[in-house]
Specification:
alpha/beta, Rossmann fold, six-stranded parallel β-sheet, 18 strands, 507 residues, twelve-stranded mixed β-sheet, 19 helices
Length: 507
């Protein structure tokens, strides 16, 4: 698990380290600059250029100080480097002024104008994490010049965050540097993982510069993400076991001509290691599902059935329940959703797709439910649930989801380019696995099955939601590697799960 930070939190960590640990700000700046210089030198070596010329474009804040110090280190190592001052000398921070004075004493060249065409590596040190207004004036000219050089083949390396990207949201503040690499310090900033900031950042390299570990607790970091190491959270299997050991999942899914959703969700649960899956669906889906997934138990109801009063007793026989994939939105589906949410069942419930659309018209069913519940809406479904348009959601996702989870007592998996998981705890999960090839029919059905499979194996619901989303994205990454982004389907994601889990368990 890794933490992500906002701009305010990053500044607070910096301040805590300086004030509580006693490490001077100039020492932290020197460490950061050394990291930048090392990455620049590595990049230069990888480019195999006959001549390496480096420009460092510096603002007047401490980000500019980092850039000036990096330029001095590279100059001392014999590289051809030139400092360009995008900010005014008289407005420089104290540490930035000190770094400039040192650089000038050591005869580091200072350039004039905004022509960067002669340089094949450009270090962006214009703005750091404090930008809170649109870029304008002289700074726009420098960002334009930097991006023009990039379009002509120059490699842009940003310090901490590309200039012009909002540190928290990843939004472009009018104009922003498009970097090939970004060297950030201590913790990755949220603006580097949210889009479009992630596109502008390029490859993100996070380096330790000696922040006090106690600062994390003191500041109270909110955002977390999972890495490959977290795959070890996967439920363990033991030799002395049977199918009952690994739980039983109920998939309430499928409608006429929509058997595929039930299949994807059920098979995903099996792929995650669950012992047994029962699919509750229309009688007309029986033959299809028996052929596609003979391992599953089927419980069917007639297409004309209206009374589902016997369903609550059925729910108690399982360790996890999926409700909604391909269910439809007709009267029978509404009756099923109402019956399930009104039951006294305490089994973890994962709600998706059509069930979410039904609940968007009957939100009181959700508020009255006492079942531990995860909802998995994409942006359109979340818009229907909350009443907010998609643009508003993208700009205020955390606040909207926090309010929704408080009101309805659910865990919300808000599916987007960066899926977020928000519950009633102080921690917000941001998922970094997955890719655009997963934007295909059936992908969401697979996610519900993965989460249910983990829940059935006695993983707590919040943890199952986080690990399920992460593994789903990892399976998508494996599928993309095997098939390519354009050609992959939901079936490819399903097929990638065994490959992924084999790698995890062998590690």
């Amino acid at each position: 698990m890794e933490y992500l930070v906002t701009g305010r939190q990053a500044k607070a960590i910096d301040t805590y380290t300086i004030e509580q640990t006693g490490i001077p700000s100039l020492v932290l700046m020197e460490r950061a600059s050394l990291c930048v210089a090392e990455e620049v030198q590595k990049t230069a070596d990888q480019m195999h250029l006959p001549v390496v010329r480096i420009a460092v474009v510096c603002g007047s804040g401490n980000n500019g100080g980092d850039g000036i110090a990096a330029a001095r280190i590279l100059h001392e190592r014999g590289l051809d480097v030139c400092i360009f001052l995008a900010g005014k000398r008289e407005k420089m921070s104290a540490d930035c002024q000190k770094q400039l004075a040192i650089a000038e004493k050591l005869s580091v060249p200072i350039g004039n104008g905004t022509d960067l065409s002669a340089y094949n590596i450009i270090i962006d040190a214009i703005f750091g994490i404090g930008l809170d207004r649109p870029v304008e004036g002289n700074y726009r000219d420098w960002i334009t010049a930097t991006n023009h050089a990039a379009s002509c083949g120059s490699c842009i390396i940003a310090i901490d965050i590309p200039s012009g990207i909002h540190t928290d949201s990843g939004h472009v503040m009018g104009l922003a540097v498009r970097a090939r690499k970004t060297v950030t310090f201590g913790y990755v900033k949220t603006g580097l993982v949210f889009y479009p900031g992630a596109d502008y950042a390029g490859q993100v390299i996070c380096r330790d510069i000696g922040f006090d570990p106690a600062a994390r607790k003191a500041v109270g970091l909110q955002y977390i993400t999972y890495t490959k190491d977290d795959c070890q959270r996967l439920p363990k299997r033991c030799a002395d076991s049977n199918k009952g050991t690994y739980g039983h999942v109920l998939i309430i899914a499928g409608s006429k001509n929509m058997a595929g959703a039930a299949y994807f969700s059920a098979l995903a649960a099996y792929r995650m290691g669950v012992g047994l899956v029962t699919v509750y669906t229309l009688e007309s889906n029986r033959c299809i599902l028996q052929q596609l997934l003979p391992e599953a138990v089927l419980k069917t109801y007639p297409d004309t059935q209206e009374d589902f009063s016997a369903l609550p007793d059925l729910l108690k026989n399982y360790q996890a329940i999926v409700l909604g994939p391909g269910l439809g939105q007709g009267p029978a589906a509404e009756n099923i959703v109402r019956t399930v949410t009104a039951s006294d069942c305490q089994v973890p419930l994962i709600i998706d797709a059509d069930a979410l659309n039904i609940l968007s018209k009957n939100r009181n069913w959700l508020s009255e439910s006492m079942i531990p519940t995860v909802i998995t809406p994409h942006m359109k479904e979340l818009s229907r649930l909350t009443g907010h348009n998609i643009q508003y959601l993208k700009e205020n996702l955390v606040q909207v989801c926090e309010a929704f989870t408080r009101e309805y007592g659910v865990i919300c998996i808000a599916k987007d380019t960066r899926t977020m998981i928000i519950d009633n705890s102080e921690t917000i999960y941001i998922n970094l696995s997955g890719n655009n090839g997963m934007a295909t029919g059936g992908s969401g059905d697979i996610l519900t099955g993965i989460i249910a499979g983990l829940c059935a194996q006695h993983m707590p619901l919040p943890e199952a939601a986080r690990l399920g989303v992460y593994l789903h994205g990892c399976a998508g990454d494996t599928a993309a590697f095997n098939k390519g982004f354009h050609s992959m389907t939901a079936s490819d994601v399903l097929d990638a799960i065994p490959e992924l889990l084999k790698e995890i368990t062998l590690d």
